[in-house]
Amino acid sequence: MTRQGELSAAVEAVLIDEDTLGRRIAELGAEISADYRGRDLLLVGVLKGAVFFVSDLMRSIDTPCEVDFMAISSYGSATDSSGVVRILKDLDLSVEGRNVLIVEDIVDSGLTLAYLVRMLRARLPASLEVCALLTKPARRTTDVECRYVGFEIPQRFVIGYGLDFAELYRNLPYVGILRDELAAQAEELP
Ligand code: IMP
Ligand code: MG
After folding, report:
1. I need a surface site. Which of 15, 64, 116, 129 has the fewest CB within 10 A?
2. 190 residues of the chain, pLDDT tens digit each
């Protein structure tokens, strides 16, 4: 099997192809540029899942902006987060008085994001909004507001374009649905 074949063997179907991702991210960038024109903007990328998204999004924003990263890990099973979040890497920059836009890969239950929003809000930014590439509204258990959303997707485990299954498949250029056999394994991971 080729290397690319090995990767795509985990994919049941392509959910969002590269072109569709690119077009939607350009739209989000244009919207964000218009909303923040004349104001400072600090993008906060959530590692590792949002790396590709934040880099493509930032390049489609045409107003001055800065970027910083945060790495968090949520306790819980591989597919269900508990909402208790551990900070693995904190921001380098202060967010006090800044217009902060959290850039996330996917909002599932919303617990991780709700925690992150509470934590950053306590640091007194001038404004705090969220931009998520993907959201699974059917899985939401916490009410957390996302100002910008790329795509609403069904209740399936997805991989690619930064999203992983057991740290693999982030390098797929599209968002794909993980095959059922592997998804079943995900339920059992610690
Ligand atoms: P939440 O706290 O339930 O909203 O979980 C959000 C986090 O779980 C995301 O930041 C991802 O890291 C991970 N996650 C949730 N759904 C998926 C998925 O379908 N594929 C890959 N990671 C996911
Ligand atoms: Mg994540």
Report:
1. 64
2. 566 678 889 999 999 999 999 999 999 999 999 999 999 999 999 999 999 999 999 999 999 999 999 998 876 666 666 667 889 999 999 999 999 999 999 999 898 899 999 999 999 999 999 999 999 988 778 888 999 999 999 999 999 999 999 999 999 999 999 998 888 876 665 4
Q: Active-site residues: which are they?
A: 108
Instruction: Give the whole-angstrom CA distance, residue 86 versus residue 13.
Output: 33
Tell me, yes or no, whether 41 lies in a domain. Answer: yes
Residue 12: inside a domain: no
Spell out the residues 6+ positions from residue 31 whose beta carbon is closer than 8 angstroms to its own: 148
Distance (Å, whole) CA 18 – CA 126? 34
Q: Which residue's CA is the closest to the ligand 1 atom numbered 9?
A: 106
Q: How many domains does the chain have?
A: 1
Domain annotation covers residue 11: no
Residue 109 lies in a domain: yes
pTM over 0.90: yes
110 lines ligand 1 (CB under 6 A): yes
